[in-house]
Amino acid sequence: MRFTGLFQQILDAKGRTSVPAQIREELAKLGIDRLVITTDQVRAYDCLVVYPEPVWDKFVRKFERLPELDPDVEVFRDTHIAPAQPLTMDGQGRILIPQSLRDEVKLGGRVVVVAAGDTFRIWDADIWTKDRQDAKARYPESKKALAARLG
């Protein structure tokens, strides 16, 4: 399962947004209708990340093998694992983002869905624009470093 693409979406007054058709089609091919949403942070900015349930389950099984008293494990558990909530799409392909998560990452009416790999992130559009500007500024340096590592 590989999601790709950037999608401008609207978050309605009830906190619903559409899962882009391209992502819905990929999920349908695999018979996946249950998702998990939680908080995430990329660079210095907060967003939400949505996992197909089988991907989340695999991730949590790996995470649970880590020593639970490790301070990094505690921080990650409290900020990423604990806030996670299950989601299902309605008949129109929308998900209802819980209010607590919307508040946590300051989602407004315009959101950007950033699909990459086996998850997709949901950003407030204004915050995503700031992150994108920061990422673009770092891109030449990151590209050079990755080229050296990839050979």
What would CATH call the architecture?
Answer: 3-Layer(aba) Sandwich
- The radius of gyration over CA amounts to 16 Å
Helix content: 40-55%
CATH class: Alpha Beta
H/E element sequence: EEHEEHHEEHEEH
Q: Report the end-to-end length measured between terminal Cα atoms.
A: 26 Å
Shape: globular
**Could you say which structural class the secondary elements and strand pairing correspond to?**
alpha+beta
The overall strand count is 8
Might you state the CATH topology name?
A: Chemotaxis protein chec
**How are the strands ordered across the major sheet?**
1-7-8-4-3-5
Summarize, please.
The protein has 151 residues and is α+β, with helices and mostly antiparallel strands. The protein has helices at 21-29, 53-63, 71-81, 99-105, 125-150, and strands spanning 3-10, 16-18, 34-42, 45-52, 85-88, 94-96, 110-117, 119-124.
What's the arrangement of secondary structure elements?
Elements: E1 3-10, E2 16-18, H1 21-29, E3 34-42, E4 45-52, H2 53-63, H3 71-81, E5 85-88, E6 94-96, H4 99-105, E7 110-117, E8 119-124, H5 125-150
Antiparallel strand pairs: 1-7, 2-6, 3-4, 3-5, 4-8, 7-8
Structure characterization notes:
The protein is an alpha+beta fold. It has a single domain, classed as Chemotaxis protein chec (3-Layer(aba) Sandwich), CATH 3.40.1550. 42% of the residues lie in helices and 32% in strands. It contains five helices and eight strands, in the order ββαββααββαββα. A six-stranded antiparallel sheet has the order 1-7-8-4-3-5, with helices on both faces. A two-stranded antiparallel sheet has the order 2-6. The longest helix has 26 residues. The two termini are 26 Å apart.
